[in-house]
Structure formats: structure tokens, C-alpha cells
Amino acid sequence: MTKFLVSAAAAAALGAAVAATPVAAQTVKIGFIATFSGPGGTIGTHLYDGFMLGIEHAGGKLGGLTPEVIKEDDQLKPDVGLQAAQKLLQRDKVNFISGVIFSNVMMAIYKPVIESQTFLISSNAGPSPIAGAQCSPYFFSTSWQNDDPHAAMGKHLQDKGIKRLYLMAPNYQAGKDALTGVKRMFKGEIVDEIYTTVNQPDYSAEIAALRAAKPEALYVFYPGGMGINFVKQYAQAGLVKALPLYSAFTTDSTTVDAQGDAAIGTFGTAFWTVDLKNPANQKFVADFRKKHNYEPSTYSAQAYDSAQLIDAALKATGGKLDNKDALRDALRKADFKSIRGPFKFNNNQFPIQSYYLYETVREDGKLRQLGRGTVLTDHADVYAKDCPMKW
Amino acid sequence: MVIDPQLLAFQALNGLQLGVMLFLMAAGLTLVFGIMNLINLAHGSLYMVGAYFAATLQGWSGSFVLAALLAIPATLVLGVAVELVVLRTLYDRDHLDQVLATFGLILFFNEAVRIVWGPSALFMTTPDFLSGQVALPFGIIYPSYRFAIIAVGLAVALFLYGLISHTRVGMLIRAGASNRAMVGALGVDVKFLYTAVFALGTALAGIAGLMAGPILSVESGMGEPILILTFVVIVIGGIGSIRGAFMGALLIGVVDTLGRSFLPGLLRATFNPQVANAAGPALASMLIYILMALVLAFRPQGLFPARAA
A198 lies in a domain? Predict the structure, then answer.
């Protein structure tokens, strides 16, 4: 009798679960993996705030479905990121995974996510293998291929007629990719190419050597705390005026307040600037400032577009998540108003987009990165030709 | 490869500056280790808190000097509180327990500053009178703030020398480093001595933190890189010895700086550029650890041990 009751209860529960399925289809589950703790934690906050504002501007729904965003901290550790991805795939059964700041975390989660046929929308990391031979129909990027913001600076320095350039970056993959990117478009003399220890706090020795080498300009890639240290020390050495500082991901709204006036007059390149004149961007920037009381960064902008991309695709499929091919076709159209202005996806599902020069200035009492013209127009990354995907 | 003498002098100054910074940290750590037999991994956290206090006070008052004058006692008070609440219970435990507990303190402080001050790095600037550069002989132009760090570090070293070699407290500290049990048996209030030594160490970490604030990014976790270097310094210098901490700190500062600036170039002159570019930076960052390994192999008690052999 007891056995019968248990079975009956189980059957009833099962029935209830089956009955509940259509209701569950009204939600879209998104796993959002980013670095929220440690020195990279600021970037995670910028990314997440951008993504959530994207959802808010879509009316709190994505393609008519109620979004359920599950936030996971990768602690900037590939193994922790992988665990988070597996949990999202197996236990939460998410429909999308988005976020992902660091390329090493991306490379760790990439295989399991695409093999589970879950769409992976990168809001930041764009390592070259994924753009090239290992591209996947389940991967989309709303940011850029890692080399390109740097390649844009290489182009700008080349166009500017700089003859002797000095390069510095941390000694890890992204640092090497960055300098490779610059050298792809800059054809002048590379006076020296210095790789420093990752998270090195003090650059006095390198700055002294740099001063002695007397280059015409300096390019650095020092994200996060490294950039704060470097830019402050560079200014204290009295070099900003004498030797112009060019960079990417070094001075942006995640670091500039800690750099202070030292950052004024330095230049960078990015796919987006806060003052881009298109209605989508103006709305994004105004509402972001109002809501969060800090300046949006490229990270916020990229993640905002990730949310917009998912929204646009789900609108096109009428909120249907199960037909992956239809969903992919809809994602590929990128039918939304990007904060970067018009763009489209390449065959590797990375954006073909323009890159801009920006200068750090003080505006309305705040340190901001304002656009100083277009460097590359409708630029496609060089790895796309290695990607076998055609559509 | 020809080494430019002007660059060499410049780098020697940079090495000296890094050295005195390390000394401020190492002096406190070595005293705590040598006298209280306590491995305090949270020493870097006190440095971080010193920098946060200084950055916050500078933000409020706009004055670096005022911030410095208040941040040091504030850090000291916090250090004494940590000693009374947590560390006091650890003196009789073995080193593994101490490492675990003080590692826990690192995590606690890193999260605590994120909760109190938020995840973004704080801004701290050099005082106006130190924001320029000083012109030294032979055409060397050196940032005045770093010059001030060297001056402060050397002044603190002089003060410690006076304190430890020529005062009664110093005598007790030296006695404690040589033979703790005997000092206690002679009727010295060891508990008070421990708190006083820890307070001194904390104040020195606070000074290091506040001096570092304007050149480094004041953020959660900033204490760990310098903590590792500081341990290298006290291992090389000899545990418990202020003189060892001073010499070890200068040695590490100079070796690290000169290695970083000249080793890649030297390698490039000898090997092909590809090998040199790959090996140079890696070898330069390993140099101080190689030095530590050599000291451990040939003089395991350190170069200037505190205890009589």
C-alpha cells in the first residue's frame, strides 16, 4: 500500500512537471560568467551592469520571454570558470551563456559549451583560435577579436608617421597577441619590445630604460591594476608630454579614476567610445550614467549589445528556443541598433566593425575617453579566413 | 652590449627605492617572526590597509601630509586589534596553524576592503611639492616622490637602528630575538613586548602602504606581491635581524631592478633574439628567487642572522 502511494505521488509529481513545461518555456535562462572578485572584479561589474541595462531597455523581456540571468564568478581561474559552465549547462540547463572577460577562461569553457549546443555569446574575450580554425556555429561575439583594438592603434601610429615605436605588455598570451596586433599594421622601427611580469606593481626600471632608448612614441597594453600603476608612474617620471603614450584597455572608465590627471592626454583605440553619435548609444550612455552613477566602459557597451543580440534573435523566432538552426539564423542577422553604429557578423560570427581613436580628457569634471576619429572602417579580423564556416 | 652609465645610475636609484620600500615591510615582518616566532602572512594586508586609510584620508582632506599623519596611527590601532583578537591565540600553536589563520586574515581583509571601499581601485596622488622631478648630477632626472621614498626609508632605518641598539626597549627586542624563553624567565612582560613589537611592525607596514599609495594602484590584493618579496628579503637577510632586513632589502631591490633592466639586453647580445625575448623576462623575474635558493643552500641562517651561531 505504501509503495502504491509513493508511486502515485511520484506519478502525480511527474504529471505536474509535464504540465508545468509550457510555463517554463516562457522564460529564457542565461548563464552569465564573468570575473566578479579579485583585481578583475571591477570589469565584471561593468560587464554585468551593461548586460542588465540591455535587458531593461528591451522592456525587461528578451523576445517576449522572461529572462532569468544566473550570475557565476570565474575568479579569473579557468578551472573555476569551467565548473561554473558545467553547472550552468547540466543543472540549470541554460539556453545561453554570455559574459566571459578573460581569454584563458573562454578557452576553458569553449569546448563543453559548444558541444552541448548551447549558444555562447562572448561579451569580451575573442581569442584567435575561436575566430579561426576552431570557430563554431554556437559561438557569437559582440566585442572583437583580441588582436584588433591593438591593430587599430598600429594603423593609427603608421598613418601618423611615427617612425620609432617602443612596445610594452605583460608577459602572457594576451600581451603577446596585443603586440602582434600592433605590429601587423605598424611598419616602422620597433625600438624595443618589453614583456614585464604579470601583475608587476612597479615599472621604474622599465621606464628608465624606455627613457634612455629615446623612442618617438610608446604603446602599452596594461589592463586593470597594471595600467593604473604604469600610467601613474609614467606621469611621475615626467614623460607624458615628452613621449606620447598610446594604449588599449589601459586607460578606460574601469581604471581612469584611479589614474587621475596622469591619464589626460593619452590615446587609445577601441570599437566604441562614449560619445559616439548614434541614438542607441546616446540612450545607453545617458541611462547608464543615471542608473549606475559611473561611466560606462567598452565592457558595459559590449555586454549591452550581447543582451540586445539575444533579444533581437528571440523576437525573430517568436520566442522559440528549441529550433537551434532558426535561432542561429536570427542571431546572424544581428537585427538591432548597436551602440557602435551599424555592424554585421563575419563568417566566423565575429563583428565586422570600425575602430576609433580616443583621447582621455576632463569633461564636466569627469575623466572621459572621447572619440578622435575613425581609424579602421568595417574592419574584419585576419583569422576569419581560417574558419571553415560559410553562410 | 654597452651599458650606459647614466642608465645604470638611474637603475641603481630605482633599486635603492624598491629596496627601502621592501625594508619598511621586512623590518616589521622579521621582528614579528624572530621575536614572537609567528609567521604573519597578513603583514601585506596591513600594508594594503595603510594605503587605503591614506588614500581615503587624502580624498577627504586633500592633504597628503595630514593623511600620512593620521593613516599611520590608524593602521597601528588596527594592527594592535588584530594582535589582541586573533594572533595572541596563535603564539603557542605550530607554524602550520599560524599560516592557515593568517592566510585566512588575508582573505578577510581583501574582501573587507572590497565591501567597505568597493571593487574599484582608489585614487591617491603625490603631494604637490613632490610631484615634479629632481635634477641630479650627471643629467639624471629622478621623480621627486621616489626620492622622498628613499629619504623616508633611510630615516626609518636610522630610527630603528637608534631604537634597537641604544634604548631599553631595543635591548628587550634584541634579547627576545636571541632567546625568548630567557627573556620571559627574567620577568619581562612578554605579552606586552609582543604587542609593542607587533604595533611597531604594523606602523612600518602602514608607512610602506601610504608611501606606495601614490605610485601604485590602491586596490584589494595589493599586499600579496610585496609580501612575497618581503619573505624573500627576510630569508636572505636572516630571520629576526633588522640589519639583515636592511641589507637583504637593498640587495633584492638592486638585483631585481638591474636584472629586469639589463638581463634581457645581455641575453640578446649572446643568444639569438627569439630565445632571448622568450627567456629574458622570465629569467629576470626569477633572479631574486635564484639568489634566495643560493643563500639557503650555502648560508641557511641568512646573510646577517640575529641569533649568535
Answer: yes
- Identify the CA nearest to A138 among candidates A300, A348, A315, A314: A348
On whether the CB atoms of residues A195 and A174 are closer than 8 A, the answer is no
Torsion angle (degrees, nearest 10) of CA B88, B93, B95, B101: -50
Q: Across chain A, what does the average pLDDT equal?
A: 90
ipTM for the predicted complex comes to 0.80
Confidence check: pLDDT of A18 > 50? no
Contacts of B90 (CB under 8 A, 6+ apart): B38, B97, B98, B101, B102
Could you tell me if A117 and A183 lie in one domain? no
Residue B258 lies inside a defined structural domain of this protein? no
Instruction: Tell me B121's DSSP state.
Output: P
Cβ distance of B261 and A237 shorter than 8 Å: no
- Check whether residue A22 and residue A101 sit in a common domain: yes
Q: How far, in Å, CA of B21 to CA of B44, rounded?
A: 13
Lowest mean pLDDT among A71-85, B136-150, B206-220: B136-150
Give the domain extent around A211. 148-270+358-379
Question: Is residue A69 helix, strand or coil?
Answer: strand
Q: Which residues contact B72 (CB under 8 A, 6 or more apart)?
A: B50, B203, B206, B207, B210
What total of structural domains would you count in chain A? Answer: 2
Q: Does A154 fall in a domain? A: yes
- Contact flag A204-B17 (C-beta cutoff 8 Å): yes
Upper half-sphere CA count for residue A315 (Cβ side, 13 Å): 14
**How far A148 CA sits from the closest chain B CA (Å)?**
23
Q: Do A171 and B282 touch (CB under 8 A)?
A: yes
Contact A232 B131 (CB under 8 A): no
A253 touches chain B (CB under 8 A): no
% of chain B beyond a pLDDT of 70: 98
The Cα diameter of chain B in Å comes to 66
Note whether A208 contacts B: Cβ–Cβ < 8 A. Answer: yes
| Residue B266 confidence (pLDDT) above 90 | no
At residue B22, the 3 state secondary structure works out as helix
Whole-angstrom CA distances from A112 to A86, A132, A302, A323, B54 are 8, 18, 23, 20, 46
Residues A239 and A283 in one domain: no
Measured in angstroms, the CA of A174 and the nearest CA of chain B are apart by 15
